[in-house]
TrEMBL record:
It comes from Egibacter rhizosphaerae. This is YlxR family protein. Residues 128-137 have a biased composition (Basic and acidic residues). It comes from the Bacteria. Residues 17-81 form the YlxR domain. InterPro entries: YlxR, YlxR-like_sf, YlxR_dom. Residues 96-137 are annotated as: Disordered.
């Protein structure tokens, strides 16, 4: 048994998790959490469910990898050899779970890619608002 990781001093640091599909190590904020709930494997988009979790890139290829060999990668990562893995159901909910995590990353604004820089600059400056210029048009 491993003790709970993540102390208060680590709060600012994004923990790294390994994708069960491609085995790449990624910041956990970019990964989807998968848990066993009621004996079946499900996505945990908010990453709040208790218990052991497995992690998956938001890439359908990684889901397929994790589902190979009767989902052995999932079962191993979750230490749940008897868990019920409904591949069709997971595929169906994958899109939704992925959207959730994208939203969490992107924040409330869903603008074009360039807008991220503008937002960051505005937040840093704090004074003048760019909106003022835009309103005139
Ligand atoms: Zn992956």
């Amino acid at each position: 048994m491993r003790a709970k990781v993540g102390s208060a001093s680590d709060a600012a640091h994004v923990p790294i998790r390994t994708c069960v599909g491609c085995r790449r190590r990624q910041p956990r904020t970019t990964l989807l959490r998968v848990v066993v709930r009621g004996g079946r494997v499900e996505f945990d988009p908010e990453a709040r469910a208790p218990g052991r979790g497995a992690w998956l890139c938001s890439d359908a290829a990684c889901l397929e990898q994790a589902l190979r060999k009767e989902a052995r990668p999932f079962r191993r990562a979750l230490r749940a050899p008897d868990a019920d893995v409904d591949a069709a159901r997971l595929r169906a909910s994958f899109g939704e779970a992925r959207r959730d995590i994208r939203n969490a990353q992107a924040g409330p604004s869903d603008g074009p890619p360039g807008s991220a820089n503008a937002t960051r600059g505005a937040a840093k400056g704090g004074g003048q608002r760019r909106d003022d210029a835009v309103v005139r048009e």
